[in-house]
Amino acid sequence: MNNGEEVKNSLLPIVKALFVNREDCYCMQYKQGYSRIEAPLTAAVLERHLKGEITVGSYQLSRSNFVKWLCFDLDPEKLKDPKEAALKVLNVLFEEKEEADGKKRPRIWRKAVLLEASRYPDPSYHIWIFFVPEVPAKLTQWLGYRILELADLNPKQVEVFPKQTELTEDRSYGNFVKLPLGKHQVADKWSCFLDFETFEPLPNSIILDVCGISFSEADLTKIEGFETKKGVQTAFELPKKFRPLSDKEEEKAVQFLCKYWKEGARNRLEMCFLGLCIKRGVSFESAKRIINEVADRTDDAEKQARLDLVAYHYRNRMNVCLKGTSGIREIIKEMR
User: Fold this and answer.
1) Where are the domains of the chain?
2) Which end of the chain is more exposed for a tag (fewer CB within 10 A), N or C?
3) CA 228 to CA 223: how far, in whole Å?
4) What whole-number distance in Å separates Cα of residue 214 and Cα of residue 224?
5) What angle do CA 83, 54, 48 make, to 5 degrees?
6) What is the DSSP letter of 334?
């Protein structure tokens, strides 16, 4: 899948326009990993990437903490079935909703989305969503976690980029993602774009049809309201102290969760429960004991993943907030 011919057909400008948001540095892949290159990400560097001579990663956040895209990274190293997970994300993106004018439209316009096999034919995927103009990283991150929540996917298993919402003195570069249409230097396999339904390769020129989605000021304000009021991703006031529950309180929680611990709802129910615990100042130890007991009583084959999720959300509680009572009510209503 050599890209040399398509380089001649001028994909360079659109690759730069879509994927590159910071041009003063980049990352390069070597056999042993990636290294930051303190040099401009020029057209010549991009051309070598597209030809497979080198493999480049682009830093996502601009110096003003804005981004051009949201990216989901789905790898077989973390997911039992990355293709199934990718389909869940795509189904959420393209689900049609009836709007005020009575017409049904997808959540995200298809032309704003690309599905990429990062090392074809391996089941390792990137799902890209593009924005025009750029949007704050903070809101993009919220949107990414909201999509995972709707897709009932574990954020510990599906990486969301941006991973951070602002550059700091200690982290002045942020995270990068390997640019598409290049060759994985370790796997020696090419990246390519895929059809949303068949997962078959598409011509690289598909990127010429990409049109990013735009948010009005009202849209951005609305998302900010979701962010602070519903707490899907960030920004709520943490309790000053976390306390353990009594044995009686823990047993009551276990019995309640066991009642609704059904396949297809377990991941969402656990995340909502953890959100409730964190908001109410329940200690990590109590939350972990409760989830451990629920997994034992329900013979949950994914017990370790459930316990890992407890540790993940308590460790990242300043950055990843979850629905609490409202989310639990939604799940119970669905089961009735």
Assistant:
1) 4-229, 247-335
2) C
3) 9
4) 15
5) 110
6) H
pTM of the model: 0.67
Residue 32, SS3 per DSSP: coil
Count CB atoms within 10 A of the CB of residue 175: 16
How far is Cα 109 from Cα 98, in angstroms, rounded to an integer? 14
CATH number of 4-229: 3.40.630.30, 3.90.920.20, 3.40.50.300, 1.10.4080.10?
A: 3.90.920.20
Strand pairing partners for 213?
A: 131
Cα separation, 89 vs 222, in Å, equals 22
Q: Which residue has the tokens 């993009």?
A: 140
Q: How many residues does the chain have?
A: 336
Cis amide leading into 76 (omega within 30) = no
Quick check: 192 and 204 in contact, CB under 8 A? yes
C-alpha atoms less than 13 angstroms from C-alpha of 215 in its C-beta half-sphere: 20
**Cα 332 to Cα 322: distance, rounded to the nearest angstrom:** 17
Beta bridge partners of 126: 73, 116
Residue 224, exposed/middle/buried by CB under 10 A (0-12, 13-18, 19+)?
middle
Q: To 5 degrees, how large is the angle CA 326–CA 265–CA 263?
A: 160
- Tracing tokens 């401009």 back to the chain, one arrives at 40
**Radius of gyration (Cα) for the chain, nearest Å?**
21
Tokens (6 digits) for 271: 């995340």
